[in-house]
């Protein structure tokens, strides 16, 4: 049977919204008070079944119980005591909205519910979108001041993109990502307490420490089984998600941009739009949820999903700030020999940038390092057959820079407070139109002057002392800075269609669906140790596809951990994403260079599977992990397996590959042996891992019948 097509519909007589996706139904009912109330999110139900659903589990009849029907966006009025997704204040001091439902529009898979406050000049649109073939539901809100010019401003203390509600489950588990610099994307699974649990970034960046993706299940789901509800916010600045499990067993969460304590003003005629908060229901475990997110990111988020991500060489770990033309040329020549397709000149090429104390803001080549500018390097890189990439950190400035000396007022600061320096730098206020215009002009000129094919857009500090002297609505900084970053990236891409952008914020500090809508990949972590990377990549893959995950092979011992690992192991771990090289190649032995060149060739052979196929995470016993990539048509397969530490000298047992077809046969391309699918799914493949620590294997399989 062909999958049910995605659709949106609204039945005005029943006040019933139904969003249908191939494997789920999401339903909303307009409540008697005019507020849209959540009805169902989960397994497909037909309209009759939906109409028969009670508004919500009814708590005991008492004046102390909260309103039973969860809101699509709680408006801070009535007997509602959970976290309100919409918090507004009017000129007379009245708080909260009281809605009338004023209509709906449906167009191209998009539904908007129109609401108007019953007394004040405030209107809201709740947006919903489904895409063909996807179970992801995208939601957002647009709030508009509809008053006359002299009606005074409305203060917005909170404007979430959406609230989500789960059906009653016997228990709830919160799956989320935590971490820090060098330890991003650590998957955490916690029993959800009967309480409000807040996940947030107050840093002005998505953050290394928490990620605006969460998944909830009843505590029993695994990679292949169980219902999972997950959501992801498309925002690259501060954010907040509040998950509320109440004592009667109901769980809801509300989320959006900004952290607590911020407020924004809307004047008559102005609107405030939220980013998209997307939700996904999957009945088949965390693996299926991740694959559905990967598919959504490919079809609905990434700007150029069909392009292969190039094998990058990046000079940062090799040279740090010690950058000059001869040194970069030597690295470029070896990188080209190894099969790199893109050479990225990292930090240190501009202004007075000989350390992290100076130069940020002055985006002209440093004459001592590049006496004839960057053209000779860019031309040679192109002649070697590679694209040319440049590291930039446009949102930042050192005090020791011509830009700061000329425009000290451009930085984010509060006039009466010290401006905290982090990594010796301050942050520019991109919310100021003249700063945004300067940044766009500067980057655009770099592309034109130096034939730049790729920007690595870095951001190595977060917001402190957020102030905007003289501005009547200074908290706009938290929204408008991020919007300006997005807008500049969009303009650059539109004006230079060949340009690609890698998002970076001291490693993986800015990874979210908002940044991925205008970049090609994310620099996952400054930690390139392959053992740590297995965990980091595992967490990253919960939401993001492998094609968006930049992964370099670097020198051994590793600069972060001091761990010594074989080149092959480092390659096999990095081959699970968008492979790159990042070490001092001029110090590699001839034997290492030959092995590396062969492994790059091998990566390019499996690249279509890794970057465009389906991903299955596998866990074997005894510290063995693996990832299986299958082509969209199920004919080609690659398995990357890693065992960092051997245990008791035991050989690795067979690794079952449950995604294969038990009725088919598969040829192991490198061994020339054909296996039955039934054996591979059940007993598994014999990995024949070499003895010792840091053992790894790449297995390529082709379906024969
Ligand atoms: C942080 C990035 O994550 C690194 O890869 C490198 O680009 C440095 N910044 C440069 O300062």
TrEMBL record:
It is an enzyme of class 3 (hydrolase). It catalyses: Hydrolysis of terminal, non-reducing alpha-D-galactose residues in alpha-D-galactosides, including galactose oligosaccharides, galactomannans and galactolipids. GO terms for molecular function: alpha-galactosidase activity. CDD domains: GH36. This is Alpha-galactosidase. It holds the Pfam family Glyco_hydro_36N. The lineage of its organism: Bacteria, Bacillati, Actinomycetota, Actinomycetes, Kitasatosporales. It comes from Streptomyces laculatispora. Residues 625-701 form the Glycosyl hydrolase family 36 C-terminal domain. Its EC number is 3.2.1.22. Belongs to the glycosyl hydrolase. Keywords: Glycosidase, Hydrolase.
């Amino acid at each position: 049977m062909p999958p049910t097509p995605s659709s949106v519909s609204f039945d005005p007589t029943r006040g019933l919204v139904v969003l249908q996706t191939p494997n789920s139904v999401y339903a909303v009912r307009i409540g008697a008070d005019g507020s849209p109330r959540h009805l169902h999110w989960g397994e497909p139900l037909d309209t009759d079944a939906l109409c028969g659903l009670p508004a919500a589990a009814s708590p005991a009849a008492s004046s102390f119980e909260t309103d039973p029907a969860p809101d699509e966006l709680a408006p801070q009025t009535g007997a509602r005591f959970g976290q309100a997704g919409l918090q507004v204040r009017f000129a007379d001091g009245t708080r909260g909205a009281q809605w009338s439902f004023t209509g709906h529009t449906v167009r191209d898979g998009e539904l908007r519910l129109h609401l108007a406050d019953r007394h004040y000049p405030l209107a809201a649109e709740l947006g919903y979108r489904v895409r063909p073939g996807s179970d992801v539901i995208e939601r957002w809100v647009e709030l508009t001041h509809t008053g006359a010019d002299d009606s005074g401003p409305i203060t917005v203390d909170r404007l979430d993109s959406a609230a989500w509600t789960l059906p009653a489950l016997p228990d709830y588990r919160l799956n989320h990502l935590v971490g820090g610099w060098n330890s991003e994307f650590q998957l955490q699974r916690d029993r959800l307490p009967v309480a409000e649990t807040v996940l947030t970034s107050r840093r002005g960046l998505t953050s290394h420490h928490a990620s605006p993706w969460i998944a909830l299940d009843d505590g029993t789901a695994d990679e292949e089984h169980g219902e999972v509800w997950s959501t992801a916010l498309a925002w690259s600045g501060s954010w907040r998600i509040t998950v509320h499990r109440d004592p009667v067993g109901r769980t809801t969460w509300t989320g959006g941009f900004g952290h607590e304590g911020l407020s924004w003003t809307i004047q008559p005629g102005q609107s405030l739009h939220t980013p998209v908060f997307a939700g996904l229901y999957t009945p088949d475990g965390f693996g299926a949820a991740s694959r559905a997110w990967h598919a959504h990111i490919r079809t609905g988020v990434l700007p150029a999903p069909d392009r292969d991500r190039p094998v990058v060489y990046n000079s940062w770990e090799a040279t740090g700030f010690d950058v000059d033309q001869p040194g970069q040329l030597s690295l470029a020549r070896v990188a080209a020999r190894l099969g790199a397709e893109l050479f990225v000149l990292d930090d240190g090429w501009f202004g007075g940038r000989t350390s992290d104390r100076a130069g940020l803001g002055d985006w002209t080549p440093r004459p001592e390092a590049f006496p004839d500018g960057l053209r000779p390097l860019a031309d040679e890189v192109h002649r070697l057959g590679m694209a040319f990439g440049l590291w930039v950190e446009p949102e930042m400035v050192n005090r020791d820079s011509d830009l700061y000396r000329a425009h000290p007022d451009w930085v984010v600061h509060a006039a009466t407070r010290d401006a905290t320096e982090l990594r010796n730098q301050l942050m520019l206020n991109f919310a100021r139109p003249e700063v945004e215009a300067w940044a766009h002009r500067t980057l655009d000129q770099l592309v034109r002057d130096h034939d730049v094919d790729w920007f690595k857009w870095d951001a190595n500090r977060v917001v402190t002392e957020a102030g905007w002297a003289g501005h009547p609505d200074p908290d706009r900084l938290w929204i408008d800075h991020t919007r300006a970053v997005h807008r500049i990236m969009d303009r650059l891409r539109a004006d230079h269609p060949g340009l690609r952008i890698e998002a970076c914020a001291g490693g993986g500090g800015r990874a979210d669906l908002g940044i991925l809508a205008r970049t090609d990949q994310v620099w996952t972590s400054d930690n390139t140790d392959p053992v740590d990377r297995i965990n980091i990549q595992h967490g990253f893959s919960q939401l993001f596809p492998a094609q968006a995950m930049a992964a370099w092979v670097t020198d051994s011992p590793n600069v972060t951990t001091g761990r010594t690992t074989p080149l092959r192991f480092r390659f096999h771990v990095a081959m699970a994403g968008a492979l790159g090289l990042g070490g001092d190649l001029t110090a590699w032995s001839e034997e290492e260079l030959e092995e590396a060149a062969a492994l790059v060739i091998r990566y390019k052979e499996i690249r279509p599977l890794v970057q465009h196929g389906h991903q299955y995470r596998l866990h074997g016993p005894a510290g063995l992990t693996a990832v299986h990539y299958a082509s969209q048509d199920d004919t080609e397969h690659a398995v990357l397996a890693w065992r960092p530490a051997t245990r008791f000298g035991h050989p690795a047992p067979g690794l079952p590959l449950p995604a294969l077809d038990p009725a088919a046969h598969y040829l192991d391309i490198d061994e020339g042996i054909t296996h039955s699918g039934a054996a591979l799914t059940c007993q598994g493949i014999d990995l024949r891992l070499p003895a010792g620590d840091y053992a790894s294997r790449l297995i390529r399989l082709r379906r024969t019948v």
